[in-house]
Fold this sequence. Notes:
Blueprint: H1 4-11, E1 14-20, H2 24-30, H3 35-42, E2 56-60, E3 63-67, H4 71-74, H5 87-94, E4 98-102, H6 109-113, E5 118-125, H7 126-133, E6 137-140, E7 160-161, H8 166-171, E8 187-190, H9 196-202, E9 208-211
Antiparallel strand pairs: 1-4, 1-5, 2-3, 4-8, 5-9, 6-7, 6-8
Amino acid sequence: MMNRDAFARLVGETVMHFTPAANLAGIQELGLLRPIELGRRAEINLSELVLRQNRLDLRIGTVSASLNHQKPLRAAKSDDFIDQMSRAEWSSQLDQRLFFLPTKRKLDSAFSTSFGEQSYRLIFDSRRFYDAFAPDIFLSPINSGSATRFPARRGSWLYVPVAAGETAFRGNRVKRGLVKSPDAVVEISIRRDIGPDLLHRLRIYEWTQTQS
């Protein structure tokens, strides 16, 4: 298992989470909640989350929450890029995760602008993030929610836990014959919510506004 310093070397000194500006007040009150948990609290039919064509606006008491669309996942013409899952099943497992980006890599502008004309990013110290969530941190070498152009092959095996170690992550796709060179981290995820108290303790920078 990699330690906190190895994790920081792999992903950079900070990791960040993007969200539409409309979600700020709700996050400050409820914390960071996975789409599946937001759906449950909003008491909607959870099938509405699957392969969202458009942004989904939810209401939880006095708090509003906006979930991004899944058009990049819908872009593929078939499901044959996913091992032993349909696109609907892949969509469902995405909604059971919170996603973060490593600041070590250049940000794909298409990712941030997909959140709308105004979005915010919340930045966390990588070592403190590791301390809070390891060993239940998962690493991916691709944007696992995108299937545009020539979608990379994926399956449940794609997400490598930090408990498996750096070598296991870097060689995960190499040993499957999918790539020739060791992978770098493109995406980080956890399968749990972050309550407001923990979020407040972990956050190191104020909300940083981004524009499309």
